[in-house]
Amino acid sequence: MPNPRKRKRRLLVQSSKYMLQQLTLGTAVSLSNIAIHAVVMIVILWCREGIRPILPPSRPALSLVVAMVAAVSILMAGHFSQIVVWSIAYALVGAVPSGTDHLYLAFVNYTTLGYGDVVPVKRWNLLGPITAMNGVLLFGWSTAVIFYVLTIQIRAHPLWPGLQGVSDRTGDASAI
User: What separation in angstroms does the CA of 9 have from each of 12, 19, 174?
Assistant: First the structure.
């Protein structure tokens, strides 16, 4: 007759092993996405510097719209690429139930939408919350970048003369 204590211990060891695998994979994918997001930030800054000379200074509203559309479009492309990375990770480890779209599950988790119509297979059930945590962090970072680009554009144009030359907290207006 099997010993229930040994069976319980074996299940606990197996469960811990699976949890460690999930945390390791989730951390690796999250760090990869953070690196991708950092590159996206550099691209936004390069694009901003590239489009600034071609925008007419006499049309500050147009400059603001162009800068914001460009920044948000780049951020959306970056987020999509990060969702694809999660989708690939799900596919590689078999975390998605058969007949389910990997990209769909990655989108639902990354955006924290959480329809609940599909969940990772039990062995990989921690990947959903880890994906959501990564998405929340990167969406927050994107929000800060959007605010930064908006602030720079507003301070740079005479449409808002009261804000020209307003410094940041360091007291150096040229730093912004």
Answer: 5, 15, 63
